[in-house]
Amino acid sequence: MLHEQTVTKLQGMKLFGMLEALEEQRRQARSADLGFEDRLALLVERQWLWKENRSLAMRLKHARLKMQACVEDIDYRHPRGLQRSVIENLAASEWVRYRQHCIITAPTGLGKSYLGCALGNKACRDGYRVRYWSTTKLLRELSTASADGSLARLLKQLERTDLLILDDWGLEQLKDANARLLLEILEDRQETGSMLITSQFAVGSWHERIGNPTIADALLDRLVHHAHRIDLKGESMRKMKPERTTPRT
Q1: What does the alpha-carbon distance between residue 80 and residue 16 come to, in Å, rounded to a whole number?
Q2: 141: CB partners within 8 A, 6+ apart
Q3: pTM listed for this prediction
Q4: How far is 87 from 89, CA to CA, in rounded Å?
Q5: Are 101 and 196 in contact (CB under 8 A)?
Q6: Distances from the Cα of 117 to the Cαs of 5, 66, 83, in angstroms?
Q7: What residues does 195 pair with on adjacent strands?
Q8: Which of 20, 96, 174, 187 is within CB 3.0–4.6 Å of 179 for a Cys-Cys bond?
């Protein structure tokens, strides 16, 4: 009866990790040889791990990363100018902690989106709130929010994100309204969060892709200076993959 009451109370307090560990201890005869503090420590450790894993799962779900990517799986063999030391430094997520930015530029097919998602995944694992957006989709969402009155709520959500990833920056020339909104987002993040931007265009050409030169100056001044930079060059990685052949019958 006492055990059932304990289970009910653990469920009520949502201590599911501790509950799982308790049931395991009851099934394992050797647990009886452990002292009270040792058994309690195992219960607490399991609850802590359960909570950490659940929190990570929620952060990854919220991040909506474009692809499943991990820094441990990054390919350094392909000749594209990617330095392992640079990735290892960024993978520590200290740049997110200090609210710095990161810019990854590369021609199509060199894995810039994968790198962005891998660093976003690592930031999630390090406890940071991450949100991935295709730049084109974010601009559409901002326009829709401006029209239906939900812009303030969307901007607040973006502000609460530790790392905002904008993929494929510069595919379209920014109109004044969109450029002003992006500048507002960036200004809101000056002291609160980081941005990671991927683009197939060199940073030197970004100014001309922003319609209003005054806004362009303000945007790039806040974003580019002191940002971590990864500039990749080389043949598309897709060309290097072997073609699938139809199996013989």
Answers
A1: 47
A2: 133, 154
A3: 0.80
A4: 5
A5: yes
A6: 45, 7, 17
A7: 164
A8: 174
